[in-house]
Amino acid sequence: MLLRTINLLRVLLLTTPVLLAPAVTSAQVVPGTGTLINTDDFEDENFGFELNWPKSSREEDEQVRYPLGQSTNRMWFESPKRGMPDVIKRVETPAGGLADSMGALYLRSRDTGIPGRPGFEQAQDDFIMAAKPMTLNYYPNYVVRVFLPEWDQWEQRHGVSFGIRAGLQGPQEKDVEDDNRFGRRLFRKMKRKETEIEPYYPGFFISFNPENSPANKTGKPFANVLIRANELGHEVPGPNITEPGWWTFGMSVTPDGRCHYYASPGVDDLRPSDHITSQFPYKIPGTHFNTIFFNVCSADNGKTWSTPWIVDDPKVYYASGSPVQQARR
User: Fold this and answer.
1) In this structure, is residue 323 part of a structural domain?
2) I need a labelling partner for 234 at 20 to 30 A (CA). Which of 46, 129, 165, 283 fits?
3) Nearest to 97 by CA among 43, 146, 137
């Protein structure tokens, strides 16, 4: 599975221009800084998505079902690993969104695992931007606005409902077992160190806490933001969200491989004060930023629909050559 994921990233790198830059000193940037390189504002009334059923589920059953779905503007595509959301459509921007925004993107799923075979546990679909890969020396960063509906419209399940993530890669040293070349008498296999280019996917998860959830001690429904991940691969708690509506999320990545996470209620541009945390995910020394994508999660029980998610104006920037903000200590 790892090899197939690496091959997918290689395809992305071979089919899109890769930006290269000289090494620069690491400093943190607020997401939304620099030169805009990828965006989709969903203002085109003819926006559509070719839902090529059945969708892929390689993570679950090793099945990639071609042709993969893709948007009519070729900016978005189905994940061969987890498939695409069941509903993908342009909608009118909810109240309180970006000024002059007339359109946004609606994402929702019910069958998030193997098509036609409910797994009865949380699963997720992917919705991937066809971004332009670049080295981390370019200080890649992204921003997106996300609309959280009223609490009674959420899938009434305690757990992760939505993800906002980046696709990165970098070298990671692993222990590899050598084949037994000396016959059956050698019971312990030899181990050696091998460095592989490892894909990884840091970002945000939005988790729901229904009013009646045993984990909810407040007596009211709320959501909380989880950051993935720290050096050990564990999630880091972020802010609680007690009122539905628009939120702005953003992440920047510095050449040292650290990811810097920001979030704020509303749709205003992110500021230094919106910084949540900075982490070195999985201790992987990242080298390339490949894309951004969204996860839509459900219980995958064949009946219950996910929370309806609306996103607007995802933007990817590179900040090399722009003023930078020194990382907090």
Assistant:
1) no
2) 129
3) 146
